[in-house]
Design brief:
The chain has 130 residues and is mainly α. The protein contains seven helices and no strands.
Amino acid sequence: MAGWAYLPRFIDKIRLSEAGQLHEDYQPNYLHKGFDAKWLEKAGLEADEFVAVVKATATDGQVCDWVRENVEADESTKELFNDAVLNYGADETNTELRERLAMRKADAGMGDRDDIQCFVDFIDADEGRL
């Protein structure tokens, strides 16, 4: 969406939070940590500003149009961010992160799932898409 792999998920999280339905597991990192904070930083936006944009729109397409018009990140920035998000935890040399992924998989009863190789895979599996 507008060149950002994370943007649709972020919009969903904001809408869920505003409706009081954001799962408790996501609340500690919401807006100020993790991929939320990294996206806001790369987009050059403050959390409150972007939440207001999402709240003021009826559709994700309207948010996408706003991002296209107001976020000045170049294609290289988007590509690097997307690669970092989509492959977070896949680097075999980052043993600390691989151990955290293995722990999360085990805690969720998915420790034997070799198809889960990064945190995006884990989230997809945890939410029933993989």
